[in-house]
Input
Amino acid sequence: MVDPIFDYQFRLILIGDSTVGKSSLLKCFTEGKFAELSDPTVGVDFFARIIEVQDGTRIKLQLWDTAGQERFRSITKSYYRNSVGALLVYDVCNRSSFEHIPLWMMEAKRHIEPHRPVFALVGCKVDLVGSDNKNGAWREVSCEEARMFAEENGLHHVETSAKTGSNVEQAFILVAQEVYNRIQTGEYKVEDGWDGIKTGFNRPNGMDFNLLEAETVQSTCC
Amino acid sequence: MPSSDSEDFESADEGRISPNKRERKKRLSSSNYSDNLEDQDNKTTQEPVLHKVAASVKDNIPKDGWDDFDIEEESEPTDIPQKEEIKTAPTEKAQASIAQKIDSQKSGWDDFDDWGEEKDINTKDPQLIPKSQVQNVKEIPDPQEVTKSDGWGWGWGNSLLSTATAGISNLTTQVSQGISTVLETGIGAPDPEELARISAQNNAKENNADSERRNSTETKAEPNEANQSNANEGAFPFGSLLSGVTKFVETTGTKVLAGGLDTLETIGKKTMEVLQDGDPGLAKKRAMLGLDSGDKPVLSQVLREARAKADEEDQMKEAKREAKAVHYETLFDDFEGLVHLEALEMLSKQVSIRIEERLRSADPNKRQDIKETLQQVAELCEMPDEEDEEEDEISEGTSRPDALHERLQRATRDIGLKLQFQPLIKQFTETLAWLETSDVTITEKAVYKKAVSDLAQTTALSVELYHKTAEMLLVKNRRSTADEADALTQLTVVLTKHISDLATQFTEKLTNHASEDKEQINNYITNVFLEAGNSSKYIENAFHLALPIVQIGAV
Output
């Protein structure tokens, strides 16, 4: 069970073609496990983990692992709305999964509107690259190409391996930090009726405000 | 005394003044002050010193310190406002109060040695007078408010009043003045004059305290007056000019105010005084701006309230932390039950919208048919009223988790989907194993915690089951609405029964617990059943959310 103490909860959604490794990425991130074989996701599954952003604020990431299969497409699109961040996942050894990324991004933008989520472009399975190619895997998407696409579209980019755990945490922390920064700048707010960002159990709304006020009073006194 | 309120206080003078007040007012306004005082004087010939009182009253009447009292006591604010009225009021008040004094202060006259000084002090603050006047006019519309929070007008009115009423207020002014003196020196501007005065006042204080004591014993027959004098005595030594009559009376006797707050307030007042020294008109400006209006809370009161609130919050937080360990909703959320329910709700809403769209776009002739179909499906999904304890043809030998598995499979055999019951079965197996470990050292609280946690987890898994079923139904190729509806209904029956079964297991464990504290055990048992009820509600809720998903297969 997750330690219940956190300041914010961010809802992130993982989207991308089937078998690119969304569920594996999440299992690695939340449980530290990797399985060579896993069942395809039905509809949506959930994962959660608490991380800390740079100033030590504790963030619970609620992760929505969507099914990549075409037949679930009509269902998964109903789940986009309340996300504050979206991880666009592709397989570095699967060219078409990368080519579909713009479609996934458009779909996400359309369904998350009017909110503007933080996007990250996440390449998976880098462990297969340069291996003995027993699995018949070659890198089909170069890092440069992906980076260029990311820069053009204002996305963060990271290449990961759920098997080795390489860059997995970084992918999620990147997004969480960006969301948190946008909260700090006032771009994102906790809103009623939108579950992208929620305050944690231990942070009653307005507590910060009260502290701030108390300090102000003090300083004017002395 | 803490219970007495402003009403009591009003009556202190009211009783004496109110009859035919207005008539008397008219009469008095045209009469000679000293004549009236002479009358009083005659009544109390044994007090030769009274001449001095008369004199001081004359000196001080124009200052109008009275009008505060006038308002509070009269409780008919609409009459008062204009200057004429204010002028007449003091005379009459002075009269009344003096009459009072004569009754109650027979031995208080030796204080008059300090009188000259007193005058000094009061005439030193002429700028206060316009302020209190303006305030009065402002505050008239709402006497209630005035009573509650007009600390200023009340306080100053009082200190001015003291000149006229001698005895009692003499004391109070002395003391309050003493405090502001202390304040001044404390701030770092020692004034030799003030210092000299302090020593004189210390003597005066002693005298006054003495007379005060005697007063209160002598005037037991007049409790209200005693109140007043006590109120003065109790309130002013703390320097707080108080937030109104209520507070004023409350502070008498036992209640001692927190020194820090009151010092703050005194500082605030001092600041005002300094401000007004430079600009006597400030009082008017402030009043015009509404800064002194009666509904403005007094600082000390606000701080006190804030502190009380903070204390309360701290307590609540502590209790929350404690309760969280066994908080059902939190656990349900941690087991992903809430988010599955939410996702199911999203699906349900979207499907409902699709159904309505179909209805709207349908041919008007067909529309009624569709509605009927929807209704029929809804009826199929109604929970059976009585759980007919039907054949549990599960053979004796099977373990309870297997029996559950069998029931779940039988319930859903016609749904046409491969549902995952394993997590539920696994969880049940673990629960049973935990219950069987007859660890005697286990506390009743641990049993209770496990009960709540397991109920939450079972519920979360059940909700997940509905969510997954709904998703799979939506992507199913061939729908068989009637079977699906029946399967989901049966599933709900099995699951809610499973929940109550779990609850019973745990309550039995609790009942058999060898604990002294039977009451605590009973509380826990009640809570387990409550949470089981909660669980069943979540499950039924999930079932209802799945209804449109079954319905859309039929239309």
